[in-house]
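hiii, so i know i said id send this last week but things got crazy w the move. better late than never?? heres the sequnce for the chain we talked about at the cafe, plus the structure i predicted for it. fair warning i was half asleep when i ran it
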Amino acid sequence: MNLNFLDSILKYVPGINKPAAPLTFKEKLKWTVIIMSVYFLMFSTPAFGVSTATINQPLIQLISVIFASRIGSLITVGIGPIVLASIVLQLVIGAGLFEIDLNDPEQKGRFQAIQKMAAMAIAVIESYIFVATGYVPVVGPSYVGAVVVQLAISAIFIIFLDETMTKWGITSGINLFIAGGVAYSIIAGTSSILLAEAVKAIQTGGATAIPNAILAFGPLFFAIIVFLVSIYAYDMKVEIPLVFTQIRGVGGRLPIPFLYVSVLPVILATSFELSLTVWLRFFAGITGTFANLVKFIALYQATPTSTGASQLNLVGGLVYLISPNFPLPYSTAYGGIGGYSAYFSYLATGTSQLYLPWGGIVAVPEFVHIIIYTLVLVVLAVIFGKFWIEMTGQSPHHVAEQLQDVGWQVPGFRRDPRIVESILNKYIPTITVLGSVFVALLASLATLTGAVGTGMGILLTVGIMYMVYQQLEQEHALEQYPELNKMLS
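okay and structure toks below
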C-alpha cells in the first residue's frame, strides 16, 4: 500500500528545521548542553498533582532507564512513544503492508513524519494509561486530568527535543537522554544506597562487618564488569581489505565490528517487552469472556501505596515470564529483598504465578522465569538485529552497493557488487546474529546479578558513548579537512 494519501495530513505535523549552514563542533556542543539542561530540568521537576511517595520496584526502575524517564516527573513517559512508534512502523513495513523506500529522501521524510505523528498519539495514550492504572500515584481523583495533560504535553515536547538534538546537536536525543538517565541512576544508586548499606554494615560490627560492607558494593562491582566486557566487545572486529579503483596504490579496510548493530537489538527487544507490561495494565481487572485470557497473558495484583491508593503490579502470566521482573539485591530498607544471600535464595527457590484459564493459578519456579526471560530476549534480539540491518542499509546488499558507488572493491575479485555482496554474506549475517546473542546474554546476566544502573542501562550507555566518541572523531576530522567535508556532503 502506498502512503501518498497521507501527505495532506502530514503537512500539518510540526517539525524542527535543519540549520541553514553546517554547524561547527562548538556550535553542536553548545546546543547539546542546552538540550540536556532542559531534559534534566524536566527530569527533576515533579508533575503537579503527583504523589511524592517513592516507588522502588525493579521493573519500574528498568522501565525508567530504558525509556529515559523518571516516575512522577514531567518526563514520566520519556522516550517510550518514540521507541514504540519506531518498532511498530518497522514491523509494519517489514511485513510489506506499506511501501516505503528509505533511500528516497521524499519517502524517508514521509516515514519520519508518520513516525512522529504516531509517537505523539502514543504519548497521549500512554500518559492516560500510566495515571489510570496507578503507575503514576496521584494525590487525588480530582488531579487525574491535570496530571495526564502534563505528562502528555511533556512527552510530546521530548519528541521535539529529540528531533532538535538530532539536527542541531552531536547525536540523537534518545541516545543522550538514556545515557544521562543511566549515569544519574548509577551515581544516585551508589551514593544513596550502596554507600549507606556499607556504612550500616560496619556500624553493626562483628566478624562479618567488613565482608558485608564489601558485599554491599556487589551491584557496583557487577556494573564495572559489564562496562569492561562491553568495551572489550566493541573493539572486536573483522577487517576486509579494500582497494580504491580510481587511484592506484590507495587501499584500506572495511571494519565489521563484532557488535555490528551495537545494542540496538536489545533496546528494541527490551522496549517491546516493557511496552507490553505497560499497555496490558490497561486491561487488568477486565471481566467477562476474555478475563481468564488476560490473566493468562498478564496477571496484575493491586497493592496499596503509602498514600492509601492502590497500584497494579505485574505478578504473573506469560508477560511476567518474559520480563526482567526480578527483585533488587539491596536491603529491605532500600526496596530490595535483603541482600545477595536472600536474592540468590529467591532465584533458586522462589516461584511466580501463572494463571491457566482451564485450571486456576499454578506456581512456576523462578529459575524457569530466568530461563524463559533469557531465551526470549536472545530470540527477540536476533530477530530485531537481522531486521535492523535491512531497514538501515547495513545489509550485505546495501553495503556492497555503497562500496561500488564510492569506488572501492575487494582486491583479487572482479569489480562487481554481486561478488562483494557474496563476500560480505560470509561475515555480516553471522556477526549480526552472534553480536545480538552476546549483548542479550550480557544484558540478562547483568540484570540477574543486580548491577546498579541495570544491565540494560549499562550496555546502552557503553554503546551510546562509543557511538558518540566515533562521531566526535569524525566531526574533528571533517573540521581539520574541509575539502573532505565538502566531498562527503
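btw The first strand starts at residue 237 and ends at 244. thought thatd interest u
miss u guys!!
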